[in-house]
Design goal:
The structure is a single chain. The longest helix has 26 residues. This protein is of the alpha+beta class. A 4-stranded antiparallel beta sheet has the order 1-2-3-4. β3 and β4 form a beta hairpin. The two termini are 17 Å apart. It is elongated.
Length: 161
């Protein structure tokens, strides 16, 4: 089996805009909740300013910092023998799954993913650690990953258990 190493491929550059949008939507929701709590008097005094500032800071960091950091870290690669993934932004996770252990390959396109033409590929393996996820792939790249893994697992010896 291949050595544990950094995978070769970055996700699509549009993933940065997708992640910024996701964090932006979440930030607006959190800020709206804080504003409602302040407006109803549930948060008073200096704490209302602290809560508003914290919500705004989290939104700004989520939109302006996190997407670029995630883009620099998230990587993937499929070889004849293994699936490599690397993800995270505070905690970096790097995993290898032998192709012979792949059980299912799924795609997911949420509304924000579709807006940016991106797809998440989820690879389920016979591992207690769980699935491997590759977020932010161009639709064509995701379809090729699914096609290649489906072909590779069909000819791979073993029963993926």
């Amino acid at each position: 089996m291949d050595q544990l190493r950094e995978p070769r491929h970055l996700v699509a550059p549009r993933a940065k805009a997708m992640w910024a949008t996701q964090y932006g939507v979440a930030g607006v929701v959190v800020l709206a909740v804080v504003v409602v709590l302040v407006w109803t008097g549930a948060i008073t005094g200096v704490w209302r300013y602290v809560a508003c500032a914290a919500a705004a800071l989290l939104a700004v960091v989520g939109i302006c910092v996190v997407p670029f950091w995630r883009y620099a870290v998230h990587r993937w690669e499929i070889t004849d023998t293994a699936v490599y993934t690397q993800r995270g932004w505070l905690v970096r996770e790097r995993r290898i799954a032998p192709v012979s252990r792949v059980q299912t390959v799924d795609t997911e396109r949420g509304p924000i993913d579709q807006l940016f033409g991106l797809t998440t590929v989820t690879i389920t393996t016979a591992s207690a650690k769980g699935e491997l996820r590759i977020e932010g792939l161009r639709r064509g790249d995701a379809e090729k990953v699914v096609r290649d893994l489906t072909t590779a697992t069909a000819v791979s010896p073993g029963d993926a258990t």
